[in-house]
Amino acid sequence: MIREINGSIYVIKKHNGKQISQPLAAAETETAAELSESEHNLRSLVERVKTAERLVARAVVDGTDSTTARAGLADAQQSLATAMAESDAIRQRLTDYQLARINQRANQLDQEQQHRMSEFMNRFTLELSA
Amino acid sequence: MSLSHQIANAEQAVAKAKQELAERQARVKQITQRQASLQAARATIIGERSQGIDQADHGARLALIQADLEVLEPQRVKALDAVNKIDVASAEQHLDQLRKQQQLAELEQQHSALIANANILAAKLVDTVTELAVIGRQTGRHTLGQSWVPSQPLVKLTQHGWVPR
Q1: CA A46, CA B51: separation in Å to the nearest integer?
Q2: Which of B12, B107, B148, B161 is the most buried (most CB within 10 A)?
Q3: What is the pTM of this model?
């Protein structure tokens, strides 16, 4: 969950059963590292599936019992599917943080522009209102 | 998407491009340093052999160095190609264009606000001068000029549409 507290954006999350708030930039760095690790894991799992596929193919060609190889392949495929879903979730979280940061910056730019405009018009309207 | 959002996005794109460029340049540097280190090791072995120092593993080490160098060179070319693909200048140019657009939009906004303000002031001036003329007549001042004359800058402004500051 992303929240704005006193003009700064924090990510609210649970850590060891406690709710903690982490600055957005720190959460973004942490999640980017998490995504990198997850993608590395995915690449390993893809290799594992390929190996398992080769083992099944070899068993078929050799005419030996392929039950164990097929079980290994199913397990590898299941692990890959789980890891892909996890990776997607991390990527989505990172995208959410990046969007929040961009929105915050856009709001800041809008506020700066409004302030400049207000300062500028003060030169012309102060005497009249006085 | 608002202009501020576009600028925030473009700022993010520039920062990302710069970061990726730095990472890719670091990769090229890492490979180049590894190549230099291997070449130095090869030169040492060749130097030793030319001085008659011949060790049993010289040949194997030279073969290994050569094999590593052959693997590293395509990696360096690929890494260099990746560096050249990052276009920080385009990202910066896009950001610059958006900032100029924002400046122009801000000037347009100021222009509109000033026109609205000038219209208010003009209406107030007309009201003030009209009331001045009415009170002037009641107090024996039969022409407006006896009560108030516009300042020279105001006269110039109304006559020429411009007044120097």
Answers
A1: 52
A2: B12
A3: 0.74
